[in-house]
Amino acid sequence: MSCQVELTEAGFDPAARLATFSASLGDEGAVVSFTGRARGKAKDGNAVGALVLETYRGVTLASMQAIAGDAHERFAITHSHVVHRAGRILPGEAIVFVATASPHRRAAFEAADYLMDRLKTEAVFWKREEHGDGASWIEPTAQDQKDTVRWLQSEGEENAEN
Prior knowledge:
This protein is of the alpha+beta class. The protein has four helices and eight strands.
């Protein structure tokens, strides 16, 4: 089992990360990846000049590692790789990369989805968008919270079945 988590201020190439991840695998039949990119428009439609993610590095990294560890405990994945940017990110640049591998597709898909939902709502980041007239802090949306809560609900259902 391999669980790799990175927090970086440097840009990265998601395709290169996926190639490296895939080359490190053994006989896994499934590889799922997701790349999140900075948008150029805010929810209100106004242009965004940059997304700024502030961290308290040790705390942020520990929160990401805990989320990745939980994914390995919950799903039958053999490998995962999470890369998350911090600092100033321009529209179109990659913010986050998640890759998972497992013997079969369902676990890899579910683990990648789970990782993204929890990273979006629980990883310790302070986010703000810079625009022409200043900056605004952004929080996870109600839908983001709902997406994360469904994993808690499904966990309760799994425990009730056992």
